[in-house]
Specification:
single chain, about 100 residues, alpha+beta, Arc Repressor Mutant, subunit A, three-stranded antiparallel β-sheet, 3 strands, about 40% helix
């Protein structure tokens, strides 16, 4: 599994797309046709992934949006990013 550092810039995989539906979102991976449902946290995280922001910047935005301590989110969001890379939803960051 790829370890995600706070300075890494994150982006969606080329074949991943997010659709907001009702109270949540789904991610479609075009190459496999797989659909993933997102909880509120994952949806908010993916909304901030733009190919320009680092993990640290995304965590900063989420901590303001949800009024949660940034340090509390650091480990959780790094673990989430690692899972999303492993699933092919996020592109593996360049080393």
């Amino acid at each position: 599994m790829v370890e995600i550092a706070s300075e890494m810039v994150l982006r969606l995989a080329d074949d991943a797309s997010i659709q907001h539906v009702g109270d949540g979102a789904v991610v479609l991976l075009a190459r496999s046709g797989q659909l993933y449902t997102c909880n509120d946290t994952t949806e908010a995280f993916l909304d901030k992934v733009d190919g320009a922001r680092s993990l640290d910047q995304i965590v900063g935005l989420l901590s303001q949006e949800f009024e949660v301590d940034k340090d509390t989110l650091d480990q959780d969001m790094a673990a989430l990013a690692e899972e999303l890379v492993a699933e092919g939803i996020l592109a593996a960051p360049a080393a």
